[in-house]
Amino acid sequence: MTVFNSETIALVKKELRIITVSLVVSFVLTVAKFAAYFLTHSVAILSDALESIINVVAGAFACYSIYLAGKPKDENHPYGHGKVEFFSIGFEGAMIFIAGILILFKAGQNIFLDRKPDDISNGLWIEIATTLANLWLALYLKAAGKRMSSITIAGNGQHIMTDVYSSGALIGALLLMRFTGWHWVDPAVSILLGVVILVNGYKLLRRSISGLMDETDMQLVDKLIHVLNTHRRDTWIDVHNMRVQQYGNNYHLDCHVTLPFYLPLSDAHEEMKSLEHLVTKEWESHGEIEYFIHSDPCLPTSCRICKLLECPVRSFAFEQLLTWDRENVLPNKKHGS
């Protein structure tokens, strides 16, 4: 039976409260935007309203994904349930992509049928009010997602911020129509918004697929390498075959570390624990991290990159310290051999 610890329960409850705020606000704003559409029959405003529906649907899906991602590891899910967050942003991306297609279809229809919007004054004020509310919501979610290392909340905030940008462009177009009477601006802006929405939907889908396929996040790798280079010990002769995987707020790191071959097993174990403690301390802001670190014995040719000058069995003189980077840390190759 799955058991939740108190910290996990508190974190999940906090994330659920945040995403519930997003869900409720998005629902209210969606109703307001559809009211603006029925007042004006502007296809551009309809485009904005359709995108807002996605905010509501994605928020509802995110509620479940946050609950599931917060569940602890069990026998059937030894790495936890965090991968569901990538399903969440993938679902959101797919919904955004569909909305973009619908918007383009509706805009094209209005161009061929030469439909003109009604008086847009009332709709303009509603759009301004909903855009300001969305701006507050997006900033709130992005800050909360960064603070809690939640890709679901941060992704939801990023999506709503995109909605703010598109709504801002829409307000500009409505103002232009209001003062010039250029009705062709309405479908033109709708097409532009549709393309922007399609691009953002693709980006979320791309991020979802990369996470589900365990694509390496090079920014995380660079941070880890920087930490190891900054705090390296002389006994850590080499690091290679590094892999970093993300499971929601949890990360899994495995790598090989070359140590002096003559170290007793207990000393080698302490070296590995020291490395783990070092990374854990530097990683606190990202979330929890677990390790699978394999220790390799050094070879005589490793002496050329080994800075342990008091080594009692040195075969070759030290030549140059190997600075770890992506090129030599990620491949499964022991260096100096």
UniProtKB/TrEMBL annotation:
Span of domain Cation efflux protein cytoplasmic: 222-298
Full protein name: Cation diffusion facilitator family transporter
Transmembrane regions listed in the UniProt entry: 18-40, 52-70, 82-104, 124-143, 164-182, 188-205
Keywords attached to this entry: Membrane, Transmembrane, Transmembrane helix, Transport
An annotated GO BP: intracellular zinc ion homeostasis
Domain (Cation efflux protein transmembrane) ranges: 19-213
PANTHER family: MITOCHONDRIAL METAL TRANSPORTER 1-RELATED (PTHR43840)
Membrane topology: Multi-pass membrane protein
